[in-house]
Amino acid sequence: MSGQMNYPLHLAILVLLWGYIYTSWSLMGRLGLVSFGHGAFMGIGAYTVVMLWNHFGLSPWLGAVAALVFTAIVAVIIGYPCFRFRIVGHYFALVTLALSEVTRLIIVALRDQTGGSLGATPNGALHGGETVAVGALQFAAKEVWLVIVFVIWLGGLWVWRLVDRSMGRLALQAISEEEEAAASIGIHVTRAKLRITIISALMTCAGGILYAQYQLYVNPETVSGIAISLQMVFGVIAGGMFVMLGPTVGAAFTLLLAEGLRLAFGNRYPALDTTIYGVMLVLFIIYMPKGILGAALDIFKRKKGSEQFPGNNYAR
Asked: Sign of the CA dihedral 135, 139, 140, 141?
């Protein structure tokens, strides 16, 4: 019975955690900064904490600080030259794509420290029937993880709302439409883009830290690289990039899709999920650009409008 209860809790935790990570990506994506490099930031968060804990005994709390600092530095190193020299659109996406893949390759290359393509497991801190190890950020009960991830998810929505109501969003919206015109009216283009990039990268890094500690396993294919970056993009677009809860809806959709494929095909087709993500991403962009939640809200508004003004149905 306990196992039956744990599975729905596990799915709920993953939906909220991925919903938070997708929300982090959408802070940039919905403002015209399409990044395929967020797999790198997630990988930095996951691996930094685990490696510092395994090799140096450094608490994940301190490891998290190191991971966030490292992520901010990488975001500046990548973002500043791109924004300073106006590398935008497809070129910016390609630069970030390279970052994501380079991060994965570095993790694989340092196999003596990271475990390479086999991944690594954080050293266990729960001994003798213990269920809580706060210093090691390890908890046996999924209910504890559900509360932690729920709070983090709410924090992600709060940041999304703050950004949405800030002058920075208006500035970035103007920049995405016409960068030179925005600069001519006094908007500091580089600073505005770099600020949202750092915020988004730090949030994604935090998601990687929690993912590693919850799963107690990290692998370069599951926390970094092109596949994870593509999953983020697909999830946000599928759920609805411009709606606050859209990324969470996308997380639920991608998770249920992945679970359905796993139950239907098992491990017989390793790249099947990535292939389907790619195909469905194209289909969503063409036929449902506002995503599942965005399209549902549009239908609801039209239905509500037709009920309030029934005469409009016969206007023609």
From this structure: positive
Q: Which amino acid is at 310?
A: P
Tell me the sheet residues that pair with 6: none
pLDDT tens per residue, range 253-301: 988 888 887 777 766 776 677 677 778 878 888 888 889 998 888 888 8
For the chain, the farthest-separated pair of C-alpha atoms sits apart, in whole angstroms, at: 76
Pairwise CA distance, residues 106 & 39, whole Å: 13
Percent helix, strand and coil across the chain, each to the nearest 5: 80, 0, 20
- What span, in angstroms and rounded, lies between the C-alpha atoms of 134 and 164? 34
Q: Hunting for tokens 């970035």 — which residue is that? A: 172
Q: Tokens 């709060």, residue?
A: 158
Domain boundaries along the sequence of the chain: 2-223
pTM summary value: 0.91
Helix axes 246-265, 272-287, angle to 10 degrees: 140
281: exposed, middle or buried (C-beta count within 10 Å: 0-12, 13-18, 19+)? middle
Query: What interhelical angle do 226-239 and 38-56 show, nearest 10?
Result: 130
